[in-house]
Amino acid sequence: MAGPSNATAPPPPPPPPPPAVLAAPVAVLDPRYCVDYPVDMTITQKALSLTDGDYSIVDINGNVLFKVKGKVLSIHGQRALIDAAGNTVLTMRGKIRSMHDRWKIFRGVSTDQKDLLFSVKKSKFIQLKTQLNVYLATNTSETVPDFQVRGNRHERSCTIYLGESNSNVIIAQMREQYTFKNVISGRDMFGVTVYPKVDYAFIAALIIILDDIDHSEEA
């Protein structure tokens, strides 16, 4: 009879570093979206079809922060981030199914280069784990990203970092949420924690873009 195995389970991966205490607000769109406490958001895809793919974004109390509307399954997908008062605060325009799935994000309803706030693209064409580089409009050389989104496609989770690829400065985290209603309806639902002094409208836009890129690769 074989004796007991000496094999031991591999140690669990180390937890991510705690969020850094930021000296200055990370205000990409507007300082009014930077507050001194964490913001917990729930992002839910409302439509069953990717051709419309509307999202709602609410806070921990169920208050509407933003809505997202637009078409994505075209050569140039375009979405609008709309605040609770009905104002378009961001326009997200992307060339999906391209080499790096590049998106450009503009202030308000504009798509003019002068109103560009930031752009997002995959760091590599083929990825085992999702990694998006984010460049502010002022970073014209795009040698080093200003932010990075690192995700686990299998777990539908991601962490957003300030700075380049070896940065450990966390500014937000997202994980897919599962409820009986969402599983039955086939809707996506994400829980997002935005850390203090970080522009939560900016983070909401990044999560929507990440979800669109993941869906475009699954289609």
What would CATH call the homologous superfamily?
A: LURP1-related
Question: What is the CATH topology classification name?
Answer: Porin
Q: What would you call the shape?
A: globular
How can the largest sheet be summarized? 12 strands, antiparallel, barrel
Mean pLDDT: 81
Order of helices and strands: EEEEEEEEEEEHEH
Descriptors for this entry?
219 residues, 2 helices, 12-stranded antiparallel β-barrel
Please summarize what this structure is.
By secondary structure, the chain is mainly beta.
Overview of the molecule:
With 219 residues, the protein is mainly beta. The protein has a single domain, classed as Porin, CATH 2.40.160. It is built from two helices and twelve strands, in the order E-E-E-E-E-E-E-E-E-E-E-H-E-H. It has helices spanning 180-185, 200-218, and strands at residues 39-45, 55-59, 64-71, 76-83, 88-95, 102-107, 116-122, 131-136, 147-152, 157-162, 170-176, 189-194. The chain has a twelve-stranded antiparallel β-barrel. The longest helix is centred in the C-terminal third of the chain and has 19 residues, at 200-218. The radius of gyration is 18 Å and the shape is globular. The protein starts with 38 loop residues before the first strand and ends with a helix.
